[in-house]
Fold this sequence. Notes:
- The protein is mainly α.
- The chain has one domain (about 5-310).
- Helix content is about 55%, strand content about 0%.
- It has twelve helices and two strands, in the order H-E-H-H-H-H-H-H-H-H-E-H-H-H.
- It has helices spanning about 5-15, 45-55, 75-100, 110-130, 135-145, 160-165, 180-200, 205-210, 220-230, 240-260, 280-285, 290-310; strands at about 30, 230-235.
- Helix 2 (about 45-55) runs parallel beside helix 10 (about 240-260).
- The radius of gyration is 19 Å and the shape is globular.
- It comes from Streptomyces capitiformicae.
Amino acid sequence: xxxxxxxxxxxxxxxxxxxxxxxxxxxxxxxxxxxPVHSSGDGHLARRYAExxxxxxxxxxEPSGALGAAxxxxxxxxxxxxxxxxxxxxxxxxxxxxxxxxxxxxxxxxVAAAARLVxxxxxxxxxxxxxxxxxxxxxxxxxxxxxxxxxxxxxxxxYGPVRxxxxxxxxxxxxxxxxxxxxxxxxxxxxxxxxATKLVPDAPSxxxxxxxxxxxxxxxxxxxxxxxxxxxxxxxxSPTEVAAQLLRRIRVVREDLAANGLYPAATTSRDEKPESxxxxxxxxxxxxxxxxLTCIARDSVRRSLEGSGSHGA
Length: 313
């Protein structure tokens, strides 16, 4: 039995962003399948998802204004750190699922959709790391260290299936169009390194700092610790149900960016960007996050409709 039934998933879709987490800039648990395998989904939910998303990739770009500005930097950047990571997990799962199911010849638009997912991951890196260095070292980094002194992104359950792909080892089925995808992977690495320079220019990672202290934890335990920190649960869940949760987070992220901007004017975050994050290509990602996320959402609902045997997206 799925962790989310049809009624609860429809409720997620219908609820406004002002109620996300029960309050402005609140947090919601994310439910993901333990393994991102393809399943039949639910045709009714997939069609409702398509209706809410709108008829085209630019639909819904105008924010409703329901979220409003955040009360404090701490509230805003904590929300972004958790919600942006949850979105990242879904992008990794979708990218891994597409790679695992890659067939020759690749369906039209498949490699382009994969490239958008990689760019979406780059966008979420920039979004989560839009915090100031002060908030990162005063709030976020100590919180991770309290969860576990060696807390590391390497513990992420959903990263393993896409690690090789993000390092440039693509499925043979994606040979046509591989240049664009490889270029996105290289840009993602640049963004990743730039964010490390921005947030921790002179400090080792928590994993490096904890080396040699304490007993190493089993892989499954590390994965659970990582999930619980980011309010992520693992249970049977159809692609359509994942898509509903994806759309909900995309909506609230777009509202946040409309209300606050990626780098709020009253903060030092933009000034703290290293040169590697000031290139035209990186700043293009920053400017187009809402539209990029909308395109990714449309890719997701199209895939959900195909899996459910529905049509009309």
